[in-house]
Specification:
With 199 residues, the chain is of the alpha/beta class. Helices cover 43% and strands 15% of the residues. The radius of gyration is 17 Å and the shape is globular.
């Protein structure tokens, strides 16, 4: 889980950030990205940080607290549902990642990005890694922050739009969520450009 970090350090980069997003697939709510920098040579390899999808909600929360305390810097970027509709989910995901990186202090000098795409809006050297959240502890840490921050937002929306059970489904297309959409239609935070919502 530290191969890509070590590779970047050996190339002379000092501040290596891992970047990931949460929320490409949901029918409602924002896409949220996170960027995390750990101190060089001080990666948390033995506390269970891995792809957020493989962790229980409580374990994610516990690890998110640890990451916020121990990381050199953590940045979060949010792109709301209306902008997802305006620019599409792919561009919105990259924009959220860009915002997360720009929120880091200090700015990193190298990026490890989950997925096959670079963030073209940033001139920082970068390496996209398919399944990066399973291969890099720094990207995995970013996946945990992105997921916990997005879940927090969706829990808040649950109290504003209680009929959709966002507390449980977080906007993802569960059978219950789809049946609710068919019964009462979309809420103001649903992504109107998504086929299942538009239908």
């Amino acid at each position: 889980m530290d191969f890509f970090e070590k590779e970047a350090w050996e190339l002379g980069y000092k501040s290596v950030a891992g970047i990931d997003e949460a929320g490409r697939g949901p029918l409602a709510g924002p896409v949220v990205a996170a960027a995390v920098i750990f101190k060089p040579g001080n990666l948390p390899l033995d506390i269970g940080i891995k792809d957020s999808k493989k962790l229980s909600p409580q374990k994610r929360e516990d690890l998110a607290s640890y990451i916020y305390q121990e990381a050199l810097s953590v940045g979060v970027g949010i792109v709301r549902h209306n902008e997802v509709d305006a620019i599409n989910i792919h561009r919105a995901s990259l924009k959220a990642m860009e915002k997360a990186v720009r929120a880091l202090i200090p700015l990193p000098d190298f990026l490890l990005i989950d997925g096959p795409w670079s963030i073209e809006a940033l001139s920082i050297p970068q390496k996209p890694i398919i399944s990066g959240d399973s291969l890099s502890v720094t990207i995995a840490a970013a996946s945990i922050i992105a997921k916990t921050e997005r879940d927090k937002i969706m829990r808040g929306y649950h109290y504003i739009y209680p009929g959709y059970n966002f507390m449980k489904n977080k906007g993802y297309p569960t059978q219950e969520h789809i049946l609710t959409l068919e019964r009462i239609g979309p809420s103001p935070i649903h992504r109107k450009s998504f086929r299942r919502v538009a239908k």
